[in-house]
Amino acid sequence: GENVEQHPSTLSVQEGDSAVIKCTYSDSASNYFPWYKQELGKGPQLIIDIRSNVGEKKDQRIAVTLNKTAKHFSLHITETQPEDSAVYFCAASMEYGNKLVFGAGTILRVKS
Amino acid sequence: GAGVSQSPRYKVAKRGQDVALRCDPISGHVSLFWYQQALGQGPEFLTYFQNEAQLDKSGLPSDRFFAERPEGSVSTLKIQRTQQEDSAVYLCASSLAPSYEQYFGPGTRLTVT
Questions:
Q1: How confident is the model at residue A91 (pLDDT cuts 50, 70, 90)?
Q2: Rounded to whole angstroms, how far apart are CA atoms B5 and B25?
Q3: Which residues of chain B have pLDDT under 50?
């Protein structure tokens, strides 16, 4: 089955700097890659996603890139703010059933 | 608009008790998923419904876990004879249709003592 690895496990950045979180997946049949933000005591919140027919997608300060050949995808957050501090999860799924396989998460701390 | 809601938010059970966790998906969402999230880990898939049909239950860890969605809306996850290793946050997610974005509820934190 699919396996998703996520790095780093923790990331501290200064406010205003950029943050990059990387994930790799094992199953070449996966074609949908969402990113979720989870704050303490809350459920995961979808922040951006990308499908396999696209190499990059951007939404304001957040962007995701996908390299299908290398089977890795990354989340880029620019101009980080304290409210970006949270746990971020990447995930992958195949079309059928689309159950998500998650990475282990990255704790992002933005220091002001 | 209303998102996915789950109840109770917190549940403490003694080992051996049965528990029932409820999920109210976003109105009109066809697909419903249950995930289990252990402390410090990513969510792990348990089971999937399309309307009232349970199409995938490959993630249920044992036959003590049972899920239903009898009318294709509200879903209940039941755990019989709870064990300490069942302690986790149970997340429900719904999506408009297969292959659409999944939206998560706040989760139910189950603690088995």
A1: very high
A2: 7
A3: none
Q: Do B43 and A89 lie within an 8 Å CB cutoff? A: yes
pLDDT higher than 80, residue A95: no
- B52 and A CB contact within 8 Å: no
The beta-carbon neighbor of A43 closest among B55, B99, B107 is B107
Query: Which of A97, A99, A105 is nearest residue B42 as measured by Cβ atoms?
Result: A105
Best of B34, B48, B102, B103 to mutate (most A CBs within 10 Å, chain A): B102
Name the percent of chain A lying above pLDDT 70.
97
pLDDT at A46 over 70: yes
B95 contact A CB<8A? yes
- The CA-atom distances, in angstroms, between A106 and each of A47, A67, B49 are 14, 20, 29
**Quick one: CA dihedral A53, A19, A104, A70, positive or negative?**
positive
In DSSP notation, chain B reads ----EEE-SEEEE-TT--EEEEEEPPTT--EEEEEEE-TTS--EEEEEEETTEEEE-TT--STTEEEE-TTSS-EEEEESS--GGG-EEEEEEEESSTTSPPEE---EEEEE-
Assess contact for A87 and A38: CB atoms under 8 A.
yes
B35, B43 contact by CB (below 8 A): yes
